[in-house]
Amino acid sequence: MDTLPDCNPLAILEALLFVSEAPTPLEQIEEVLEGHSKAEVARLLADLQERCRREDRGVCLVEVAGGYRLVTKPELAPWVQRLRGSKPVRLSRAALETLAIIAYKQPITKPEVEAIRGVMIDGVLKTLVERDLIRVLGRKPEVGRPMLYGTSRAFLEYFGFKDLSELPTLKEIEALAPNGARKEAADEALDETRKPE
Amino acid sequence: MSYRVRLEMFEGPLDLLLYLIQVNEIDIYDIPIATITEEYLECLSRMQELDLEVAGEFLVLAATLIHIKSKMLIPAEEADGEQAPEEDPRKELVERLLGYKRFKEAAMTLEGFESRQQLLYARPTDPSPPTAEGPLEVSLSELLRAFAAIMQRAAEASPLEITPEAISVGERMVALLDRLTLESPLPFSALFGGAGTRPLLIATFLALLELLRRGLIRARQSNPEGEITVYRIMEASEGGDGHPA
Protein backbone atom coordinates (compact mmCIF):
# COMPACT_ATOMS: atom_id res chain seq x y z
CA MET A 1 0.00 0.00 0.00
CA ASP A 2 1.51 3.26 -1.05
CA THR A 3 0.79 6.33 1.00
CA LEU A 4 -1.44 8.98 -0.45
CA PRO A 5 -0.19 12.51 -0.94
CA ASP A 6 -1.37 15.08 1.51
CA CYS A 7 -4.30 16.87 -0.11
CA ASN A 8 -7.04 19.17 1.00
CA PRO A 9 -9.94 16.95 2.11
CA LEU A 10 -12.44 19.35 0.60
CA ALA A 11 -10.73 19.01 -2.77
CA ILE A 12 -10.74 15.22 -2.46
CA LEU A 13 -14.42 15.27 -1.60
CA GLU A 14 -15.23 17.37 -4.64
CA ALA A 15 -13.22 15.06 -6.87
CA LEU A 16 -15.00 12.00 -5.51
CA LEU A 17 -18.41 13.50 -6.07
CA PHE A 18 -17.41 14.73 -9.50
CA VAL A 19 -16.60 11.25 -10.79
CA SER A 20 -19.48 9.44 -9.10
CA GLU A 21 -22.24 8.31 -11.39
CA ALA A 22 -24.66 7.66 -8.57
CA PRO A 23 -25.28 9.42 -5.26
CA THR A 24 -22.40 8.54 -2.94
CA PRO A 25 -23.37 7.47 0.58
CA LEU A 26 -21.64 9.28 3.43
CA GLU A 27 -20.20 5.99 4.66
CA GLN A 28 -18.47 5.43 1.36
CA ILE A 29 -16.91 8.88 1.41
CA GLU A 30 -15.75 8.25 4.94
CA GLU A 31 -14.16 5.00 3.86
CA VAL A 32 -12.31 6.53 0.92
CA LEU A 33 -11.15 9.62 2.78
CA GLU A 34 -9.83 7.54 5.68
CA GLY A 35 -8.98 9.12 8.97
CA HIS A 36 -12.00 11.41 9.04
CA SER A 37 -14.90 10.69 11.35
CA LYS A 38 -18.44 10.62 10.11
CA ALA A 39 -19.08 13.98 11.75
CA GLU A 40 -16.04 15.44 9.99
CA VAL A 41 -17.22 14.14 6.64
CA ALA A 42 -20.65 15.61 7.29
CA ARG A 43 -18.98 18.94 8.06
CA LEU A 44 -16.93 18.75 4.85
CA LEU A 45 -20.11 18.06 2.89
CA ALA A 46 -21.83 21.03 4.48
CA ASP A 47 -18.78 23.15 3.74
CA LEU A 48 -18.70 22.15 0.08
CA GLN A 49 -22.44 22.70 -0.15
CA GLU A 50 -21.98 26.20 1.22
CA ARG A 51 -19.15 27.02 -1.19
CA CYS A 52 -21.25 25.81 -4.12
CA ARG A 53 -23.92 28.34 -3.24
CA ARG A 54 -21.73 31.12 -4.60
CA GLU A 55 -23.13 32.72 -7.68
CA ASP A 56 -20.07 31.94 -9.76
CA ARG A 57 -20.41 28.19 -9.22
CA GLY A 58 -22.38 26.08 -11.67
CA VAL A 59 -22.96 22.98 -9.61
CA CYS A 60 -24.49 22.39 -6.23
CA LEU A 61 -24.34 19.52 -3.79
CA VAL A 62 -27.59 17.69 -3.11
CA GLU A 63 -28.54 14.83 -0.87
CA VAL A 64 -30.64 12.30 -2.73
CA ALA A 65 -31.41 8.57 -2.66
CA GLY A 66 -29.27 7.90 0.38
CA GLY A 67 -26.19 9.71 -0.88
CA TYR A 68 -24.65 12.93 -2.08
CA ARG A 69 -24.10 14.11 -5.62
CA LEU A 70 -23.13 17.14 -7.62
CA VAL A 71 -25.78 18.47 -9.97
CA THR A 72 -26.03 21.57 -12.09
CA LYS A 73 -27.98 24.44 -10.62
CA PRO A 74 -31.61 24.54 -11.76
CA GLU A 75 -31.38 28.03 -13.23
CA LEU A 76 -28.61 26.83 -15.56
CA ALA A 77 -30.79 24.12 -17.11
CA PRO A 78 -31.50 26.12 -20.32
CA TRP A 79 -27.79 26.22 -21.13
CA VAL A 80 -27.28 22.56 -20.38
CA GLN A 81 -30.23 21.74 -22.58
CA ARG A 82 -28.81 23.87 -25.35
CA LEU A 83 -25.53 21.99 -25.08
CA ARG A 84 -27.25 18.62 -25.10
CA GLY A 85 -29.62 19.68 -27.82
CA SER A 86 -32.54 18.09 -26.02
CA LYS A 87 -34.85 18.37 -23.08
CA PRO A 88 -35.47 15.43 -20.81
CA VAL A 89 -38.40 13.19 -21.66
CA ARG A 90 -41.16 13.28 -19.09
CA LEU A 91 -43.16 10.32 -17.93
CA SER A 92 -46.64 9.90 -19.36
CA ARG A 93 -49.64 10.40 -17.12
CA ALA A 94 -50.35 6.69 -17.27
CA ALA A 95 -46.82 6.01 -16.07
CA LEU A 96 -47.06 8.61 -13.30
CA GLU A 97 -50.37 7.27 -12.03
CA THR A 98 -49.06 3.73 -11.99
CA LEU A 99 -45.89 4.85 -10.30
CA ALA A 100 -47.84 6.80 -7.67
CA ILE A 101 -49.93 3.75 -6.79
CA ILE A 102 -46.86 1.53 -6.58
CA ALA A 103 -44.97 4.10 -4.52
CA TYR A 104 -47.70 4.43 -1.90
CA LYS A 105 -48.98 0.87 -1.82
CA GLN A 106 -45.80 -1.15 -2.26
CA PRO A 107 -45.40 -4.04 -2.29
CA ILE A 108 -48.28 -4.37 -4.73
CA THR A 109 -49.21 -6.72 -7.58
CA LYS A 110 -50.18 -5.79 -11.11
CA PRO A 111 -53.87 -6.79 -10.70
CA GLU A 112 -54.09 -4.65 -7.57
CA VAL A 113 -52.78 -1.60 -9.41
CA GLU A 114 -55.14 -2.34 -12.29
CA ALA A 115 -58.08 -2.47 -9.90
CA ILE A 116 -57.28 1.01 -8.64
CA ARG A 117 -56.66 2.56 -12.05
CA GLY A 118 -59.43 0.68 -13.80
CA VAL A 119 -57.23 -0.11 -16.78
CA MET A 120 -54.67 -2.71 -17.81
CA ILE A 121 -51.12 -1.65 -17.12
CA ASP A 122 -48.93 -4.21 -18.89
CA GLY A 123 -47.29 -1.69 -21.20
CA VAL A 124 -46.73 0.95 -18.55
CA LEU A 125 -45.36 -1.58 -16.10
CA LYS A 126 -42.85 -2.74 -18.66
CA THR A 127 -41.76 0.82 -19.31
CA LEU A 128 -41.30 1.48 -15.61
CA VAL A 129 -39.25 -1.69 -15.14
CA GLU A 130 -37.15 -0.84 -18.19
CA ARG A 131 -36.51 2.62 -16.84
CA ASP A 132 -35.55 1.07 -13.52
CA LEU A 133 -38.12 3.11 -11.64
CA ILE A 134 -39.77 0.04 -10.18
CA ARG A 135 -38.51 -3.40 -9.34
CA VAL A 136 -39.78 -6.79 -8.39
CA LEU A 137 -39.69 -7.19 -4.63
CA GLY A 138 -40.84 -10.78 -4.57
CA ARG A 139 -43.94 -12.82 -5.08
CA LYS A 140 -47.21 -12.69 -3.23
CA PRO A 141 -47.97 -15.99 -1.49
CA GLU A 142 -51.35 -16.53 -3.14
CA VAL A 143 -52.75 -18.33 -6.16
CA GLY A 144 -50.61 -17.67 -9.19
CA ARG A 145 -47.86 -16.20 -7.02
CA PRO A 146 -48.09 -12.78 -8.69
CA MET A 147 -45.04 -10.56 -8.62
CA LEU A 148 -44.90 -7.79 -6.10
CA TYR A 149 -43.61 -4.45 -7.29
CA GLY A 150 -41.99 -1.62 -5.41
CA THR A 151 -40.04 1.50 -6.18
CA SER A 152 -36.29 1.42 -6.82
CA ARG A 153 -33.41 3.62 -5.81
CA ALA A 154 -33.61 5.17 -9.27
CA PHE A 155 -37.14 6.24 -8.34
CA LEU A 156 -35.77 8.26 -5.43
CA GLU A 157 -33.15 9.81 -7.68
CA TYR A 158 -35.65 10.58 -10.42
CA PHE A 159 -37.93 12.53 -8.12
CA GLY A 160 -35.19 13.87 -5.86
CA PHE A 161 -36.13 12.12 -2.62
CA LYS A 162 -33.62 11.25 0.06
CA ASP A 163 -35.68 8.21 0.97
CA LEU A 164 -39.27 7.04 0.78
CA SER A 165 -40.26 8.96 3.89
CA GLU A 166 -39.85 12.15 1.86
CA LEU A 167 -42.76 11.15 -0.33
CA PRO A 168 -45.55 13.54 0.63
CA THR A 169 -48.37 11.76 2.43
CA LEU A 170 -51.59 11.26 0.52
CA LYS A 171 -53.21 13.48 3.11
CA GLU A 172 -50.87 16.33 2.31
CA ILE A 173 -51.53 15.86 -1.37
CA GLU A 174 -55.26 15.88 -0.87
CA ALA A 175 -55.04 19.05 1.16
CA LEU A 176 -53.27 20.75 -1.74
CA ALA A 177 -55.61 19.45 -4.42
CA PRO A 178 -58.46 21.68 -5.53
CA ASN A 179 -62.11 20.85 -4.87
CA GLY A 180 -61.28 18.43 -2.11
CA ALA A 181 -64.62 18.81 -0.42
CA ARG A 182 -65.68 16.32 2.22
CA LYS A 183 -62.35 14.74 2.83
CA GLU A 184 -62.96 13.29 6.27
CA ALA A 185 -64.29 9.99 5.05
CA ALA A 186 -61.50 9.60 2.57
CA ASP A 187 -58.86 10.38 5.16
CA GLU A 188 -59.70 7.35 7.23
CA ALA A 189 -59.27 5.02 4.33
CA LEU A 190 -55.97 6.56 3.50
CA ASP A 191 -54.19 6.17 6.74
CA GLU A 192 -53.27 2.60 6.04
CA THR A 193 -52.21 3.53 2.54
CA ARG A 194 -49.24 5.48 3.71
CA LYS A 195 -46.07 3.45 3.75
CA PRO A 196 -43.04 4.91 5.38
CA GLU A 197 -39.92 2.96 4.55
CA MET B 1 -73.04 18.92 -23.12
CA SER B 2 -71.04 21.24 -25.23
CA TYR B 3 -67.61 20.01 -24.19
CA ARG B 4 -65.74 17.84 -26.55
CA VAL B 5 -64.47 14.64 -25.15
CA ARG B 6 -61.50 12.83 -26.56
CA LEU B 7 -60.63 9.37 -25.43
CA GLU B 8 -56.90 9.99 -25.30
CA MET B 9 -57.56 12.74 -22.79
CA PHE B 10 -58.45 10.12 -20.25
CA GLU B 11 -56.35 7.57 -18.51
CA GLY B 12 -59.29 5.22 -18.18
CA PRO B 13 -62.99 4.93 -17.37
CA LEU B 14 -62.58 6.21 -13.81
CA ASP B 15 -60.75 9.25 -15.11
CA LEU B 16 -63.57 9.97 -17.55
CA LEU B 17 -66.17 9.55 -14.84
CA LEU B 18 -64.27 11.86 -12.51
CA TYR B 19 -64.12 14.42 -15.28
CA LEU B 20 -67.88 14.24 -15.84
CA ILE B 21 -68.45 14.62 -12.12
CA GLN B 22 -66.18 17.64 -12.05
CA VAL B 23 -67.56 19.52 -15.05
CA ASN B 24 -71.09 18.98 -13.82
CA GLU B 25 -70.10 20.07 -10.33
CA ILE B 26 -71.55 16.96 -8.84
CA ASP B 27 -71.02 15.90 -5.23
CA ILE B 28 -69.04 12.71 -5.49
CA TYR B 29 -70.85 11.33 -2.42
CA ASP B 30 -74.25 11.84 -4.03
CA ILE B 31 -73.90 11.04 -7.70
CA PRO B 32 -77.11 11.32 -9.73
CA ILE B 33 -76.56 7.96 -11.35
CA ALA B 34 -79.15 8.27 -14.09
CA THR B 35 -77.75 11.57 -15.38
CA ILE B 36 -74.15 10.56 -15.13
CA THR B 37 -74.78 7.21 -16.81
CA GLU B 38 -76.43 8.98 -19.69
CA GLU B 39 -73.53 11.38 -20.07
CA TYR B 40 -71.00 8.62 -19.79
CA LEU B 41 -72.70 6.55 -22.47
CA GLU B 42 -72.95 9.59 -24.69
CA CYS B 43 -69.23 10.12 -24.39
CA LEU B 44 -68.60 6.55 -25.39
CA SER B 45 -70.89 6.75 -28.40
CA ARG B 46 -69.23 9.98 -29.44
CA MET B 47 -65.89 8.26 -29.34
CA GLN B 48 -67.30 5.51 -31.48
CA GLU B 49 -68.68 8.03 -33.93
CA LEU B 50 -65.19 9.36 -34.27
CA ASP B 51 -64.17 5.84 -35.14
CA LEU B 52 -62.17 5.53 -32.01
CA GLU B 53 -62.06 2.11 -30.63
CA VAL B 54 -63.55 2.26 -27.17
CA ALA B 55 -61.44 0.15 -24.90
CA GLY B 56 -63.13 -2.72 -23.11
CA GLU B 57 -62.44 -1.07 -19.77
CA PHE B 58 -64.74 1.82 -20.65
CA LEU B 59 -67.52 -0.62 -21.50
CA VAL B 60 -67.11 -2.51 -18.24
CA LEU B 61 -67.71 0.67 -16.27
CA ALA B 62 -70.70 1.48 -18.47
CA ALA B 63 -72.18 -1.87 -17.48
CA THR B 64 -71.46 -1.13 -13.83
CA LEU B 65 -73.21 2.23 -14.08
CA ILE B 66 -76.27 0.71 -15.71
CA HIS B 67 -76.35 -1.98 -13.06
CA ILE B 68 -76.26 0.60 -10.26
CA LYS B 69 -78.92 2.64 -12.00
CA SER B 70 -81.24 -0.34 -12.21
CA LYS B 71 -80.62 -1.21 -8.58
CA MET B 72 -81.55 2.30 -7.54
CA LEU B 73 -84.80 2.11 -9.45
CA ILE B 74 -85.99 -0.80 -7.33
CA PRO B 75 -87.86 0.57 -4.30
CA ALA B 76 -85.94 -0.06 -1.10
CA GLU B 77 -88.68 -2.17 0.53
CA GLU B 78 -88.68 -4.71 -2.27
CA ALA B 79 -84.95 -4.83 -2.61
CA ASP B 80 -84.21 -5.77 0.96
CA GLY B 81 -86.55 -8.70 1.02
CA GLU B 82 -84.26 -11.02 2.96
CA GLN B 83 -81.51 -8.68 4.06
CA ALA B 84 -81.41 -5.91 6.59
CA PRO B 85 -81.02 -2.29 5.36
CA GLU B 86 -79.50 -2.39 1.91
CA GLU B 87 -76.47 -0.22 1.47
CA ASP B 88 -76.29 2.47 -1.15
CA PRO B 89 -75.64 0.72 -4.46
CA ARG B 90 -73.31 3.57 -5.34
CA LYS B 91 -71.06 3.00 -2.35
CA GLU B 92 -68.55 0.72 -4.04
CA LEU B 93 -68.24 2.96 -7.08
CA VAL B 94 -67.73 6.03 -4.92
CA GLU B 95 -64.97 4.27 -3.03
CA ARG B 96 -63.27 3.27 -6.25
CA LEU B 97 -63.55 6.80 -7.56
CA LEU B 98 -62.11 8.28 -4.39
CA GLY B 99 -59.31 5.74 -4.38
CA TYR B 100 -58.44 6.53 -7.96
CA LYS B 101 -58.73 10.29 -7.44
CA ARG B 102 -56.26 10.16 -4.58
CA PHE B 103 -53.60 8.53 -6.74
CA LYS B 104 -54.36 10.75 -9.68
CA GLU B 105 -53.54 13.69 -7.44
CA ALA B 106 -50.47 11.90 -6.12
CA ALA B 107 -49.38 11.43 -9.74
CA MET B 108 -49.69 15.16 -10.34
CA THR B 109 -47.58 15.83 -7.27
CA LEU B 110 -44.94 13.43 -8.56
CA GLU B 111 -45.05 15.26 -11.87
CA GLY B 112 -44.17 18.43 -10.00
CA PHE B 113 -41.17 16.76 -8.41
CA GLU B 114 -40.22 15.39 -11.81
CA SER B 115 -40.14 18.77 -13.51
CA ARG B 116 -38.25 20.33 -10.61
CA GLN B 117 -35.74 17.49 -10.69
CA GLN B 118 -35.30 17.54 -14.44
CA LEU B 119 -33.64 20.92 -14.17
CA LEU B 120 -30.79 19.35 -12.25
CA TYR B 121 -28.27 17.59 -14.40
CA ALA B 122 -25.97 15.04 -12.87
CA ARG B 123 -23.07 13.20 -14.43
CA PRO B 124 -24.57 10.76 -16.90
CA THR B 125 -23.82 7.11 -16.49
CA ASP B 126 -20.84 6.30 -18.65
CA PRO B 127 -22.05 4.07 -21.42
CA SER B 128 -20.24 0.77 -21.62
CA PRO B 129 -17.50 0.93 -24.22
CA PRO B 130 -19.19 0.93 -27.60
CA THR B 131 -18.68 -2.09 -29.76
CA ALA B 132 -18.74 -2.56 -33.48
CA GLU B 133 -21.32 -5.30 -33.86
CA GLY B 134 -24.07 -4.16 -31.55
CA PRO B 135 -25.26 -5.60 -28.28
CA LEU B 136 -24.80 -9.25 -29.13
CA GLU B 137 -21.11 -9.72 -28.74
CA VAL B 138 -21.36 -13.40 -28.12
CA SER B 139 -22.73 -15.19 -31.14
CA LEU B 140 -26.07 -16.92 -30.91
CA SER B 141 -24.47 -20.30 -31.46
CA GLU B 142 -22.21 -19.75 -28.48
CA LEU B 143 -25.14 -18.75 -26.31
CA LEU B 144 -27.02 -21.84 -27.44
CA ARG B 145 -24.05 -24.04 -26.66
CA ALA B 146 -23.79 -22.57 -23.19
CA PHE B 147 -27.51 -23.03 -22.69
CA ALA B 148 -27.39 -26.63 -23.87
CA ALA B 149 -24.85 -27.33 -21.13
CA ILE B 150 -27.21 -25.89 -18.56
CA MET B 151 -30.14 -27.91 -19.88
CA GLN B 152 -28.08 -31.08 -19.64
CA ARG B 153 -27.42 -30.49 -16.00
CA ALA B 154 -31.08 -29.67 -15.39
CA ALA B 155 -32.22 -32.96 -16.87
CA GLU B 156 -30.57 -35.02 -14.18
CA ALA B 157 -31.39 -32.59 -11.43
CA SER B 158 -35.16 -33.00 -11.38
CA PRO B 159 -36.49 -36.36 -12.48
CA LEU B 160 -39.90 -35.80 -10.94
CA GLU B 161 -42.05 -32.99 -12.23
CA ILE B 162 -45.71 -32.80 -11.36
CA THR B 163 -47.20 -29.36 -11.03
CA PRO B 164 -46.97 -27.46 -14.25
CA GLU B 165 -46.42 -23.83 -13.44
CA ALA B 166 -47.29 -21.30 -16.07
CA ILE B 167 -44.13 -19.41 -16.88
CA SER B 168 -44.12 -16.35 -19.02
CA VAL B 169 -41.09 -15.09 -20.86
CA GLY B 170 -42.17 -11.58 -19.94
CA GLU B 171 -41.97 -12.36 -16.26
CA ARG B 172 -38.59 -13.92 -16.72
CA MET B 173 -37.41 -10.80 -18.53
CA VAL B 174 -38.48 -8.68 -15.61
CA ALA B 175 -36.79 -11.04 -13.18
CA LEU B 176 -33.57 -11.13 -15.20
CA LEU B 177 -33.44 -7.37 -15.50
CA ASP B 178 -34.10 -7.04 -11.84
CA ARG B 179 -31.39 -9.48 -10.97
CA LEU B 180 -28.89 -7.75 -13.21
CA THR B 181 -29.84 -4.36 -11.89
CA LEU B 182 -28.89 -5.50 -8.43
CA GLU B 183 -25.77 -7.25 -9.56
CA SER B 184 -24.01 -6.82 -12.85
CA PRO B 185 -22.08 -8.37 -14.47
CA LEU B 186 -23.09 -11.94 -13.71
CA PRO B 187 -21.80 -15.13 -15.27
CA PHE B 188 -24.20 -16.70 -17.76
CA SER B 189 -24.66 -19.80 -15.63
CA ALA B 190 -25.58 -17.76 -12.54
CA LEU B 191 -28.67 -16.53 -14.34
CA PHE B 192 -29.88 -20.10 -14.46
CA GLY B 193 -28.89 -20.82 -10.90
CA GLY B 194 -31.01 -22.75 -8.46
CA ALA B 195 -32.95 -25.89 -9.27
CA GLY B 196 -34.86 -24.59 -12.25
CA THR B 197 -37.30 -26.75 -14.14
CA ARG B 198 -36.71 -27.17 -17.86
CA PRO B 199 -39.60 -24.90 -18.89
CA LEU B 200 -38.30 -22.28 -16.47
CA LEU B 201 -34.80 -22.53 -17.91
CA ILE B 202 -36.11 -22.27 -21.44
CA ALA B 203 -38.26 -19.25 -20.59
CA THR B 204 -35.26 -17.65 -18.92
CA PHE B 205 -33.13 -18.25 -21.98
CA LEU B 206 -35.77 -16.80 -24.30
CA ALA B 207 -36.05 -13.82 -21.97
CA LEU B 208 -32.28 -13.40 -22.14
CA LEU B 209 -32.33 -13.40 -25.94
CA GLU B 210 -35.14 -10.87 -26.00
CA LEU B 211 -33.31 -8.56 -23.58
CA LEU B 212 -30.18 -8.82 -25.72
CA ARG B 213 -32.20 -7.97 -28.79
CA ARG B 214 -33.67 -4.94 -27.09
CA GLY B 215 -30.21 -3.83 -26.05
CA LEU B 216 -31.02 -3.83 -22.34
CA ILE B 217 -28.34 -6.31 -21.51
CA ARG B 218 -25.13 -7.39 -23.13
CA ALA B 219 -23.29 -10.68 -23.26
CA ARG B 220 -19.53 -10.93 -23.52
CA GLN B 221 -16.92 -13.61 -23.58
CA SER B 222 -13.29 -12.94 -22.87
CA ASN B 223 -12.01 -15.86 -24.93
CA PRO B 224 -13.65 -18.40 -27.25
CA GLU B 225 -13.98 -21.13 -24.61
CA GLY B 226 -14.43 -18.82 -21.62
CA GLU B 227 -17.47 -18.25 -19.48
CA ILE B 228 -20.03 -15.87 -20.95
CA THR B 229 -20.67 -12.81 -18.84
CA VAL B 230 -23.92 -10.89 -18.92
CA TYR B 231 -24.05 -7.15 -18.23
CA ARG B 232 -26.92 -4.84 -17.56
CA ILE B 233 -26.89 -1.75 -19.73
CA MET B 234 -28.01 1.31 -17.85
CA GLU B 235 -29.62 3.53 -20.38
CA ALA B 236 -28.84 7.15 -20.17
CA SER B 237 -31.19 7.72 -23.06
CA GLU B 238 -34.75 8.48 -22.18
CA GLY B 239 -36.40 6.58 -24.95
CA GLY B 240 -40.13 7.15 -25.40
CA ASP B 241 -42.36 5.02 -23.26
CA GLY B 242 -45.01 4.50 -25.85
CA HIS B 243 -47.39 6.92 -24.23
CA PRO B 244 -47.90 10.35 -25.64
CA ALA B 245 -47.44 12.97 -22.98
Can you summarize this structure?
Chain A is α+β, with helices and mostly antiparallel strands. Chain A has 10 helices and 5 strands, in the order H-H-H-E-E-H-H-E-H-H-E-E-H-H-H.
Overview of the structural elements:
The complex is a heterodimer of chains A (197) and B (245). With 197 residues, chain A is α+β, with helices and mostly antiparallel strands. In chain A, 48% of the residues lie in helices and 13% in strands. Chain A has two domains: 9-84, Orthogonal Bundle (Arc Repressor Mutant, subunit A); 93-191, Winged helix-like DNA-binding domain superfamily/Winged helix DNA-binding domain (Arc Repressor Mutant, subunit A). In chain A, helix 1 crosses helix 3 (38-52) and helix 5 (93-105) packs across helix 7. The two termini of chain A are 40 Å apart. In chain B, strands 1-3-2 form a three-stranded antiparallel beta sheet. Chain B is mainly alpha-helical and 245 residues long. Chain B has helices spanning 13-23, 33-49, 56-73, 76-79, 91-117, 140-157, 169-182, 198-213; strands spanning 186-187, 217-221, 228-232. The longest helix of chain B has 27 residues, at 91-117. In chain B, strand 2 and strand 3 form a beta hairpin. Chain B has two domains: 7-79 and 86-117, no CATH class; 140-158 and 166-232, Arc Repressor Mutant, subunit A (Orthogonal Bundle). The chains are: A alpha+beta (197), B mainly alpha (245). At the A-B interface, strand 2, helix 5, helix 7, helix 9 and helix 10 of A face helix 1, helix 5 and helix 7 of B.
Low-confidence stretches of chain A: 179-197
Q: Describe the biggest sheet of chain A? A: 3 strands, antiparallel
Radius of gyration of chain B: 27 Å
Cα separation of the termini of chain A: 40 Å
**Strand and helix order of chain B:** HHHHHHHEHEE
| Low-pLDDT sequence parts of chain B | 129-135, 236-245
Task: Assign the CATH topology of the largest domain in chain A.
Answer: Arc Repressor Mutant, subunit A
| Strand content bin of chain B | under 5%
The greatest inter-chain interface is formed by: A-B, 65 and 59 residues
Look at the structure and give the CATH class of the largest domain in chain A: Mainly Alpha
Main sheet: strands, sense, barrel of chain B = 3 strands, antiparallel
Read across the widest sheet of chain B, the strand sequence of neighbours is 1-3-2
The chain-level structural class of chain B is mainly alpha
By DSSP (H or I, 4+ residues per run), the number of helices of chain B equals 8
The total beta strand count of chain A reads: 5
